[in-house]
Amino acid sequence: MHRARIIGVSVFLAILSVVVSLGLACYLAWMLAINSTHQRLEALAQIASHQADVTLREASTALKTLAALPLAPCTAEGIDQMRLIALNVHSVKSVGYVEEEVFVCSSWGTVGKHVAPWPEDFTTADGVRVSVNVEPRIAPSKPMMALQYAAFNVLVDPKQFLEVALDDNVKLAIAASSGHLVGASSAGLDKILALFHGGSHAGLADGYLYALVGRGDWIAVAAVSRDEIWSDLRRAEWLLLPFGAITAMLLLIMIWRGAKRQLSPLAELKRAVQQHEFVAHYQPIMDLYNEHCVGAEVLVRWQQPDGNLVSPLQFIPLAEHSGLILPITDQVIDEVMRDLGPALAADPRLHVSINLSAADVDSGRFMPVLHAAMGKSRVRPAQVWLEVTEGGLVDIERARHVLENARASGHCVAIDDFGTGYSSLKHLQELPLDVLKLDKAFIDRINSDGQPCPVTEQIMQMANRLGLEMVAEGVEQAHQIDSLKAHHVRFAQGWYFAKAMRASEFLRFYREHLPSPEPLALATSA
Q1: CA contacts within 13 A on the Cβ side of 182
Q2: Which of 5, 44, 126, 271 is deepest in the core (most CB within 10 A)?
Q3: Long-range contacts from 367-372, C-beta under 8 angstroms, 24+ separation
Q4: What is the rounded distance in angstroms from the CA atom of residue 242 to the CA atom of residue 22?
């Protein structure tokens, strides 16, 4: 279930990383398209506003120059001068002279026509009166802009205010600061111009992305349609989507590596330690002379959340290599005292044998943990045997010191898997031991006639000479028992008697095979 949850979470994160990465790439592409387009529009609006200023200043200068000439108005010389201005000044289309509502003359010649004054939209700082969208007085024509100074006036084509190099997709409009539209390259931009007075200088409105710029007497707007933005967006996406895909791939790799780490045996083992998934099973130890149960070897099992039991062969080596064996030993001790503490306290003849790793022996940290747990259950030290594996001991001097302290506290010390290591005789001579456990490999070599192999026989004889009690492991045949008894092996365990079992089953088995009234006592000379 835990594995399925990790896989489910990893798949969800993988999908989320792809969606977020590509979504972020699309969002950045949209922002890039919007920002780049807005910057371009703002630049064009600035240019258009500046162009309007230049056009107005050019026409105003020509108007003031004409008014300052020492020529009488509407004389031949004066009309010639008006024609020169209309021809030489690019922004000026025609020049006129109006006195007391009479259009006296223009750059076209003498007129003498009564006219109504043009409505003034605003007056520039230097006194030029500006009228937007007026009808020319000589001949019907498109609306023009009129500039008036003294009695003189000039007409300016509004298109000149839009003479900015534009992309085909950019729309431009110019208005006076009063809000009157001067010229627009596309219909509908007057609504956007009105947004300037509302404080909006950029945004989306009426299907356009726009930029508004106010400069002097003018307001300029540059805009592109939403369709053109989508075109820019697609170009930006072609640039950014590969980066989004690369980001998604990197995130997928990180998620895959994280999931792989969480699903690794070491990660599983760490979680098992954190969640206290280790349980104790108990294999009965029998007295061969009366077939009474005198104790049990504690065998640790990893019980996963789904109920599956993991063999120690699959996790003990990893636990020892990673250092997790230490907290596992602590959990086993607590489990044993919870399971059998009351039974041990009630019957001093019963004992349990707890396996210690090389790390446990080397550190010696198991002693205070064990004694604290025993104190709570009132278990006697002699009821807890400590088993060490001779093949795992490296620092013999350190092991000897720790085990001597354990024996001084009242514990029996047994050496397990004897004969399978590389320096067994040295261990027997240097380590303080009470019990020698005969490995199953040697018990299997006892033939059907009850004769052990020479090595097995030598080990048993050596243990007898050293005064060590012996426990035979892996007993499965009746003829093995006769041979063991003949060589003074008192205790045995194995499938011939019972497999390892949970605490409740062991206690029932123990009650069915109660020992003799005399308590078992092993010498534990310090």
Answers
A1: 34
A2: 44
A3: 367/402, 367/405, 367/406, 367/409, 369/329, 369/330, 369/333, 370/333, 371/409
A4: 9
Q: Give me 270's structure tokens.
A: 């760490």
Q: Which residues contact 295 (CB under 8 A, 6 or more apart)?
A: 284, 285, 350, 351, 352, 353, 385
Q: Are strands 170-176 and 181-184 parallel, antiparallel or unpaired?
A: antiparallel
Indicate the length of the chain as a whole number: 526
pTM: 0.58
Place of tokens 């940290």: 365
Q: What is the pLDDT of residues 34-48, one digit of tens each?
A: 777 778 878 888 888
Distance CA 263, CA 257 (A): 10
Spatial separation of the C-alpha atoms in residues 290 and 514, rounded to whole Å: 10
Q: How many CB atoms lie within 10 A of CB 357?
A: 20
Question: Is 278 in contact with 302 (CB distance < 8 Å)?
Answer: yes
Interval 61-82: pLDDT, tens = 888 888 888 888 889 898 889 9
H or E stretch covering 103: strand 102-106
DSSP state of 127: S
For residue 23, give the H/E element and its range.
Answer: helix 2-68
Percent of the chain with pLDDT over 90: 26
- Residue 249: alpha-carbon gap to chain centroid: 13
**Residues near 516 by Cβ (< 8 Å), separated by ≥ 6?**
290, 292
| pLDDT of the residue at 230 | 66
Helix axes 226-262 and 2-68, enclosed angle (nearest 10): 150
Nearest-angstrom CA–CA distance, 488 and 375: 35
Q: What is the DSSP string of 446-502?
A: --TTSPPPHHHHHHHHHHHHTT-EEEE-S---HHHHHHHHHTT--EE-STTT---B-
